[in-house]
Amino acid sequence: MAEPRRKILIVEDDLDVVDMLNAYFRVQGYDISSVNWGEDGVQACQTARPDLVILDIRLPDIDGYEVARRLRGNRRTAAIPIIFLTEKRERGDRLQGLELGADDYIAKPFDVQELRLRVRNALLRAEQDSLTNPVTGLPDGKLVDERLSGCFGNLDWTMVVISLENLDIFRESYGFVASDDVLRAVSLMIQNTRKEVGGEDDFLGHLGPTDFVLISNQERANSLQERIRNRLKQSLHYFYPIKDREQSSARNTHLEFRSGVLQSGDGVFNSLDDLKLSLLRKRY
């Protein structure tokens, strides 16, 4: 499975600068998008979260400081690295940007090679910090990969996968705060089930943004899956406002879940990606 391209959002109203950065960073292997207005920058980060934002301060509507303030004030976007790129050179402007939580501050005219290195360093710092999911607090990324990789040397393991589906559709109707509440509540149900039925060494983490993996053993796995399924089946309906509950259960776009169990004897897994794909295929 290929490594996903890092996504950079450029918020800049100088179209010449946008075109230059777009061309340069695409050649470097990044996935680039751009907007020219501050409000559009905030919306773009909330709709499709980038890995990093290059942000001008002087924008046609709200300034870059306000964009940064809104991003840092939203739980979903608070951890996005921000690099200010601006003509403002005064010490007070620089301090204001850093006080808002900017990761770096580069004055125009700038050296694009220096900007490339600063982007790389900011992404590396963010990657080191992103070991837990920002919504649920559960292990994510490399922490999960390490635990999954450790199973290759163990002949007795069983994994339970739980996937929450249609959360993006729910988010479109009820907003990011409501969808985060759903994801957090589902994670708590799974964590509580692990405490009640699982063992001390059982591991729970994110396989994807809405996918959970619970590493246990064969003796406990079926009980864990059954209890989790029962809790989710009884609960997902109640995340909708009362007036929408009947409608939500009648359509095929309402919140749903799938789960499955993968055991060490189910096949030969040649790589971590192979193991992950096999696990996701077990869902029903």
List keywords for this structure.
2 domains; 284 residues; 48% helix; alpha/beta; Alpha-Beta Plaits; Rossmann fold; 4-stranded antiparallel β-sheet; 5-stranded parallel β-sheet
Short description:
The protein is an alpha/beta fold and 284 residues long.
Description:
By secondary structure, the chain is of the alpha/beta class. The chain folds into two domains: 7-129, Response regulator (Rossmann fold); 142-281, Reverse transcriptase/Diguanylate cyclase domain (Alpha-Beta Plaits, 2-Layer Sandwich), CATH 3.30.70. It is 48% helix and 18% strand. It contains eleven helices and nine strands. The strands form two sheets. A five-stranded parallel beta sheet has the order 2-1-3-4-5, sandwiched between helices.
Largest sheet: 5 strands, parallel
Number of helices: 11
- Number of self-contained structural domains: 2
How does the overall form come out from the CA principal axes? globular
Summed over residues and divided by their number, the pLDDT gives a mean of 88
CATH class categorisation of the largest domain: Alpha Beta
Measure the end-to-end span: 23 Å
CATH topology of the largest domain: Alpha-Beta Plaits
N to C succession of SSEs: EHEHEHEHEHHEHHEEHHEH
CATH superfamily heading of the largest domain: Reverse transcriptase/Diguanylate cyclase domain
Question: How big is the Rg?
Answer: 22 Å
Low-confidence stretches: none
Strand content is: 15-25%
Q: What is the β-strand count? A: 9
> Portion of residues in helices?
40-55%
* CATH architectural designation of the largest domain: 2-Layer Sandwich
Structural class: alpha/beta
